[in-house]
Amino acid sequence: MRVLGVASASAALALGVAGQALACNITEFSAEAQCDGNKGVIVVTDKDGSGTPATITVFSKNAAGVEKQVGEPQDVKGSAQGTTVTFQEDWKPNATYRVHVKAGNLVDEDVKPDLVTPSTACKKEESQTPTPPATPTPKPSASTSTPTPSASESSSAPATTPSNAPSPAAGDGNLAETGANSNTGLIAGVAGALVVAGGGAVYFGMRRRGANSSR
């Protein structure tokens, strides 16, 4: 009987230790500040192999110790591989957060130590301005242009102004030389004097004949 009693006590003790090992424990919870793109998040991981449901609440703490709840509490059911819940929080560098875990009657305490964020904030994604396409350089046309004379060439060339006067007919030069010179008036005067003298001579000759016949 004594042997049977010792064996029963040993089995009960083993079952108690195994039950405690499988029960939810605060050491199975961890928190980390991460970046989701250019925004900050707080990720809490539950590695409770027993799968005990738990409620996670996160609080931010300032330098004066004043706390502010981050978002709403979230429920999680742990696993041996780890189950995570994410809190959207655009955290600042070197900020402090308190993570509280409530799992039925097994756990009701904070994750130790408090979460302290990295000293570098999440990087903002730089917006890339699209580069405008390069404007193609126009190629010179194959057509040839007429060269423009320079100012010196245009000034040295004689200016020929067309005349509206009719050109002289052939033979006009001879008429000008024979009848339009300064001797024409003199010849005409001598000829006139000769005609007058001849007429006077005829007149006097006829009168003389008349006088002789009357005798």
TrEMBL record:
Annotated coiled-coil segments of the chain: none
Keyword Membrane: yes
Residue spans crossing the bilayer: 186-206
Signal peptide positions (record): 1-23
Entry keyword DNA damage: no
Biased composition (Low complexity): 140-170
Positions of region (Disordered): 119-180
Keywords associated with the record: Membrane, Signal, Transmembrane, Transmembrane helix
Protein name (record): Alpha-ketoglutarate decarboxylase
Organism field: Streptomyces diastatochromogenes
